[in-house]
Amino acid sequence: MSEQFDVIVIGAGPAGYPAAIRAAQNKLSVACIDGWKNHDGSYAFGGTCLNAGCIPSKALLESSELYHRAQHEFATHGIKVGEVKFDVAMMQARKNKIVKASTQGITGLFKSAGVTALVGTGKLLKSNAGMHQVEFTDKDGKQQILSARHVVLASGSVPTELKTLSFDGKDIVDSWGALEFDAVPKRLGVIGAGVIGLELGSVWKRLGAEVTVLEALDSFLPMTDQAVAAEAFKQFKKQGLDIKLGAKVSSASKGKTDVTLKYTDATGEQSIVVDKVVVAIGRRPNTHNLLAEGTGVDIDERGFVKVDAECRTAVTNVWAIGDVVRGPMLAHKGKEEGIVVADLIAGKHAEVNYKVIPSVIYTAPEIAWVGQTEQQVKASGRAYKIGTFPFMASGRARAMEAGTGFCKMISATNDDEILGVHIIGPMAGELIAEAVLAMEYSASTEDLQRTIHAHPTLSEALHEAALAADKIAIDFPNK
Ligand code: FAD
Ligand code: NAD
Question: Which terminus of the chain is more exposed, N or C, with fewer CB under 10 A?
């Protein structure tokens, strides 16, 4: 193996692997190092997203949603199926197969792009004679010093632990553990009503667990538009997710087969007894063993690698991307940063448009948004108009038994700029792409009004919301 590269990427998650591939497409010599180890001892590329995040969670969300629909919706369609049963082992096996295909896919992509894929850990050392040095330790512990003109740090994030509730890998687990349960817990406690708490809480609720979600804040989904948050809270409660807001966990004690969680809320000290606990209170940047003394790379007070708007660290030609730097911890945000950095390294023009990053919560109904919430626009002082279209007025949604939720568009009054789009409803995660494209290319609300949307599709909800912003909607009366 060559010991010198144009670019070394540390981390092969959704930020690092696209950076490596794009750098290779830019005709640079590239090595990508990753030491991700699965619970069965195997090594795999793809990071949190492919191994323990986006992909396995969506596989289980799909299986559990199908089970739920077979139980509760088929009869409405006149489909009689008798008793509906599921097999957790088969669900898990299907999920594992999808994960394996996805992670092996990265190995294949590296091979065809000409990226040198290295299994093990990388540590940035002090630079030497203008070249950056990376200490590579392979999975057998053998060390080698590699050098490169550019180093991209893409080491991702790890789950935050509660001081009062250490992970034990069995009964008190992080999100990865909650993706690997081999049986449905009868009573599941989830700490944190954020994205992970709601997605994984939904999986196990649909499969029959009694799920209690303890959220420290008094508000629900504060990062979303509050009209969406209110609708989501109503729907999740209706589904039986017992979400307790303002619930601060103070201690946990493990019994032989259960865990007692003590928490305080507005009315005083409370406790619940559950069989398993998932702690989903956020993730923190992972810089463990990443930087040797004196590299000059700055870390901020929250542990993130400090970067500028172009992902440059304090050290020339050392870059950092993905969850290890500021901004939303989302796979597609990291991917875009990776591509942009690889293009900048190759001397091309590139930039990340941080204003137009979509977010999706893959519950049922799905929640998706891009741009500013109504609360943010109001606080900015800009005059705005709102168009809302409920899915119950959509023929396609009704045909799908999915008439819950709405699409809300917020636009500027003065120049018609689309400031934010917020959707709660069927396929919201797919629908939001149109809003992202519109905002990326500065389409106005009128541009969306004049764009023909196929009928009957869910995407008509965006069209109608744009019309509603000017009080000219056709399919739903607006005042
Ligand atoms: P990571 O994916 O964490 O990858 C970092 C990689 O770096 C790892 O493979 C690690 O082994 C490696 N590494 C670290 N240090 C070193 C070192 N010193 N040497 C070598 N290798 C190293 N985001 C979405 O956008 N959509 C979703 O649906 C979604 N679902 C999620 C569900 C769950 C349960 C979780 C936990 C997260 C989810 N996320 C989702 C978030 C998403 O997974 C992260 O934002 C994304 O993985 C970050 O990518 P990354 O490449 O920055 O880091
Ligand atoms: P999060 O930030 O979404 O939610 C954490 C929640 O825990 C918050 O509501 C917070 O108020 C609460 N909390 C914090 N401390 C608490 C405490 N002591 N007791 C009770 N509640 C507490 O974090 P997450 O759900 O752990 O997800 C981590 C990251 O992974 C997120 O940044 C998210 O972007 C990403 N992710 C994305 C997706 C997706 O895109 N669909 C899915 C899963 C995860």
Answer: C
